[in-house]
Amino acid sequence: MNQNDKKRAVAEAAIKYVEKDAIIGVGTGSTTNYFIEALAPLAEDIQGAVSSSEASTEKLKALGIEVFDLNQVASFDIYVDGADEVNPQKHMIKGGGAALTREKIVSAVAKKFICIVDDSKRVDVLGKFPLPVEVIPMARSYVAREIVKLGGDPVYRQGVTTDNGNVILDVYNLQITDPLALEAQLNQITGVVTNGIFAARAADVVLVATDKGVDTY
Ligand SMILES: O=C[C@H](O)[C@H](O)[C@H](O)COP(=O)(O)O
């Protein structure tokens, strides 16, 4: 099975968590795009969605799925999203597509985070994938210097502006042995909007597509 087949398989496997009349939290990225496709036949059965990016919102609306403003939704059951890395504790690195902040906000409101990945994303220790950090533009150099003090090598993601009008620093060579602590520490740097470690809000269920099928843990 190639990687796209695996992404499609794991996205389709997540459909079993979609209940009638539910509001579905929808992430961002190529794996989530397959989930949005798989939602299409259920468009009439669900109440609608809350979305983590302009890109996903556009795709959902094109299928006739209503996208609610998160401020009008006090609670909803599931948030489905991909990840760039996921460890056995269900901590993740996210933000390869620059949607990390809205993903963190939408997933914070969800009762259950269902992470959908192919097996290339499974790791024992987070950090091989460069850690995305969303930063207020005027703080970019300051934040980069602070990250260097923590031992990371930040690289400005040229030409990318987030949906929130900010920039991304991709941080290489971080030893993420304590994801919860590093997530909090990075968020303490003035000018950081959020970082791509999802440990305080880890996944509840991880679906992993392998050559043999979809595993759940
Ligand atoms: O900002 C993007 C998101 O965090 C994505 O969920 C993540 O990058 C995984 O994307 P993909 O499914 O395309 O590998």
Which ions and ligands are bound to the chains?
ribose-5-phosphate
CATH topology of the largest domain: Rossmann fold
What oligomeric state do these chains adopt?
Answer: single chain
Q: Tell me about the largest β-sheet.
A: 6 strands, mixed
Radius of gyration: 17 Å
The ordered H/E elements are: HEHEHEEEHEEHEEHEEEE
Number of alpha- plus pi-helical segments: 6
**Helix content, binned percent:** 25-40%
Strand order of the largest sheet: 2-1-3-6-12-13
What distance separates the N and C termini? Answer: 21 Å
Looking at the structure, what is the overall shape?
globular
Tally of structural domains:
2
Low-confidence stretches: none
What would you say the CATH architecture of the largest domain is? 3-Layer(aba) Sandwich
CATH class of the largest domain: Alpha Beta
If you had to describe this structure to a student in words, what would you say it looks like?
There is one protein chain. By secondary structure, the chain is α/β, with parallel strands linked by helices. It folds into two domains: 3-123 and 200-216, 3-Layer(aba) Sandwich (Rossmann fold), CATH 3.40.50.1360; 131-196, ACT domain (Alpha-Beta Plaits, 2-Layer Sandwich), CATH 3.30.70.260. It is built from six helices and 13 strands. It has helices at 3-13, 30-39, 54-62, 100-109, 140-149, 179-187; strands at 23-26, 48-51, 76-81, 85-86, 92-93, 110-118, 131-135, 153-156, 167-172, 192-195, 197-198, 205-210, 213-216. It has a six-stranded mixed sheet, sandwiched between helices. Strands 8-9-7-10 form a four-stranded antiparallel sheet. A three-stranded antiparallel sheet has the order 4-5-11, with helices on one face. Helix 1 (3-13) packs across helix 2 (30-39). The model has no long low-confidence stretch (mean pLDDT 98). The active site is at 103 (proton acceptor). Keywords: Isomerase. Belongs to the ribose 5-phosphate isomerase family. Pathway: Carbohydrate degradation; pentose phosphate pathway; D-ribose 5-phosphate from D-ribulose 5-phosphate (non-oxidative stage): step 1/1.
